[in-house]
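Here's my example:
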Amino acid sequence: MISQILPSNRYLMKERLLSEEVILKFHLGYVDHAGEVYVDADFRGKLPSLDKRFYHSTMFPIFSAYGECIAVSCRPLGPSPTKYINTTYEKADHLYGLSETWRDCLKEKFVYVVEGNVSLLQMWQAGIKNCVAMLGSNLSARQVALLNRYVTKIIMVPDSDKAGMNVIEKLKKNIPQKLYDSDIQFTYVQLPAGQDPDDFFKVHTKQDFLDIPRMELSI
C-alpha cells in the first residue's frame, strides 16, 4: 500500500492518472521540504545526494539495465522554471524502465521507445510492457546497442509535435553511422497531432494504439 497523503502520490494518481501498481513497480517517491525521501519499502539501492533544488518534488529513480539506482529525475511540485531536475549521470548509456521491462522486450523481440518517463508509465499501465523511455532528446547509438541485447526491432513512439519529429530525423542521420554489426530494424508510430503517449493512453486503449499503422523508418 502507498500513502495517498504524500503530495507526490496525489499528483501522480489524480493529475497523471497513474495507478498504485505503477507507483510501486517503478519506485516513484517523494522528496519533502527538508530533503527527506519517501519511497516504497521494496526499494533497494542507494539514492544520490539531493540538494535544495530537489525539495518538494516527485522522484523518479533511474536504474541501470541491471537494477542499480544510478540517478534520480525529480518533478518539482511547487513553482519552478523547469519541469524536471536530474542528478548527474550519462543519459546516453541508459534507458528509463529497462530494468523492469527487459523480460517483456526479450520475449516479444521488439521494443517501443517513447520520449518521457510518464509516457513510459502510461504505456506500461495500458498493458504494453515491452517499452522504454529515452533519457534525453535523442536515442543514442549506445542505447540502441543496449536494446539490441534484447530485441531485433525498435518501434519509436515520438511525441506528435515538432520536437518528436526531430527525434526521428536525428535517428535517421546519426544512428547508421555508428552501428556496424547490428541487425536492428526501425519503424515508428505517428500519434494523433499534438499528443504524446501520456495524453493518448489517458483516453485510448491498448488496442487503439495497436491499430495505428507502423511507419517505415528508412535509415
Observations:
- The helical segments are 7-15, 20-25, 98-108, 117-125, 141-147, 162-178, 197-203, 206-210.
- Residues 77 and 104 are 32 Å apart (CA to CA).
